[in-house]
C-alpha cells in the first residue's frame, strides 16, 4: 500500500474585523478603502503579558485622541473597555500564550479623497505570540545610524501613529539593507526625531534627555511612561532638541517602545556606549508596568 506523505499545515489564525472574528486569510479590505488608498487611519501596537495589557490606559487614551484629531465619527460603543474585551477574546481564539503582540488598526472606510462615504471608525485587531526574550533587556547592544532619505515635519498629526508611515517604513528597509538594528530619522531642521519603531533617549552627564514632541516624534506610550515616572530613572529628565553631536557625545543611548520596553544601543557610527544606567532604568520601568 502506498502511503501519502504527511504534510503539516500551520494552525489557523484569526482576526477581529468590526467585532466579527474571521480567519486572517479572508479578504476584508476593498480597493476603495481610504486606509489603503491614503493611509487614512491609525494603529496601536500593544503587548499582553499574562492576560494583562501593560499601559492600556495610555494606549487607549492615545488612540481616542487620534480618532478625535482625525475627525472620525466614533460610535458610542467603541470604548477602551469594549476594545479590550475584543482583544482578549481574539487572543483566546488564537490560543495565544503568556506574551502576545497586539495590533489594533482603525480606518475610515470607502471613498475618494473628497467624497468619503462616511467617517465611521472601522477597526481590525490582530494578535501574535511573542518570544520569551521580549521581557528582558537585549544582551547585545543595537547598532544604529541615520536614515538619510527622509525628514519628519512637526505638525498636529506628527505625534499620531497614523497609517501614513512611509518615512519609517523606508527607514526600516534601509536599516535592514545596511545591516543595522534600527535607524534614526531627522526632522526638517536636521535634529534627531525618533527611530523607525521607537523613541530615543540619551544619558549625557547627569541628565536623561529625549526630544520634545514639538520636534515631530511619535507620542510613544513607553516614552510617556518613562517621563511620568522620574523616580524610575533617578535622573533629571529633560525634553530638549537633540543633535547628532549630542548623540556622539552621550554616555548611553536607548530606544523605547511598548513591545520591547527599553533596548540599549551599543554603537552609533564611531561612538560606543555602555548600558549601566539603562539596565537600571529598564528594571525600574518593568517593575512599574508589569
Quick gist of this model?
The chain is α+β, with helices and mostly antiparallel strands.
SSE layout and pairing:
Layout: E1 14-17, E2 20-23, H1 34-38, E3 41-49, H2 56-69, H3 80-93, E4 99-107, E5 122-129, E6 142-152, H4 166-177, E7 182-187, E8 192-195, E9 199-204, E10 207-210, H5 221-228, H6 230-233, E11 237-239, H7 244-249, E12 252-257, E13 261-268, E14 271-272, H8 276-289
Parallel strand pairs: 6-7, 6-13, 10-11
Antiparallel strand pairs: 1-2, 1-5, 3-4, 4-5, 7-8, 9-10, 9-12, 12-13, 13-14
What does this structure look like?
The protein starts with 13 loop residues before the first strand and ends with a helix. Strands 6, 7, 8, 9, 10, 11, 12, 13 and 14 form a nine-stranded mixed beta sheet that branches. The model has no long low-confidence stretch (mean pLDDT 93). It has two domains: 122 residues, Aminotransferase class 4, branched-chain amino acid transferase, N-terminal domain (D-amino Acid Aminotransferase, Chain A, domain 1); 148 residues, D-amino Acid Aminotransferase, Chain A, domain 2. It is of the alpha+beta class and 290 residues long. Helices cover 27% and strands 29% of the residues.
Amino acid at each position: 500500500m502506498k502511503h501519502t506523505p504527511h504534510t503539516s499545515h500551520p494552525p489557523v489564525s484569526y482576526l477581529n474585523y468590526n467585532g466579527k472574528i474571521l480567519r486572517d486569510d479572508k479578504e476584508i479590505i476593498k480597493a476603495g478603502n481610504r486606509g489603503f488608498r491614503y493611509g487614512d487611519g491609525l494603529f496601536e501596537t500593544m503587548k499582553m503579558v499574562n492576560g494583562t495589557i501593560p499601559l492600556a490606559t495610555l494606549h487607549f487614551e492615545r488612540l481616542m485622541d487620534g480618532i478625535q484629531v482625525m475627525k472620525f465619527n466614533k460610535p458610542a460603543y467603541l470604548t477602551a473597555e469594549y476594545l479590550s474585551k475584543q482583544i482578549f477574546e481574539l487572543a483566546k481564539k488564537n490560543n495565544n500564550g503568556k506574551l502576545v503582540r497586539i495590533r489594533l488598526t482603525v480606518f475610515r472606510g470607502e471613498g475618494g479623497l473628497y467624497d468619503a462615504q462616511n467617517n465611521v471608525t472601522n477597526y481590525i485587531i490582530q494578535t501574535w505570540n511573542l518570544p520569551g526574550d521580549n521581557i528582558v533587556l537585549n544582551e547585545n547592544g543595537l547598532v544604529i545610524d541615520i536614515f538619510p532619505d527622509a525628514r519628519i515635519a512637526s505638525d498636529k498629526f506628527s505625534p499620531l501613529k497614523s497609517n501614513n508611515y512611509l518615512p519609517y517604513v523606508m527607514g526600516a528597509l534601509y536599516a535592514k539593507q545596511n545591516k543595522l538594528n534600527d535607524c534614526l530619522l531627522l526632522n526638517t531642521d536636521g535634529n534627531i526625531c525618533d527611530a523607525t519603531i521607537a523613541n530615543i533617549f540619551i544619558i549625557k552627564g547627569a541628565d536623561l534627555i529625549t526630544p520634545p514632541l514639538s520636534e515631530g516624534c511619535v507620542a510613544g506610550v513607553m516614552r510617556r511612561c518613562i517621563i511620568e515616572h522620574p523616580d524610575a530613572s533617578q535622573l533629571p529628565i529633560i525634553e530638549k532638541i537633540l543633535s547628532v553631536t549630542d548623540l556622539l557625545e552621550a554616555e548611553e543611548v536607548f530606544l523605547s517602545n511598548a513591545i520591547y520596553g527599553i533596548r540599549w544601543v551599543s554603537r552609533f557610527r564611531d561612538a560606543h556606549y555602555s548600558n549601566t544606567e539603562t539596565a537600571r532604568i529598564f528594571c525600574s520601568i518593568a517593575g512599574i508596568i508589569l
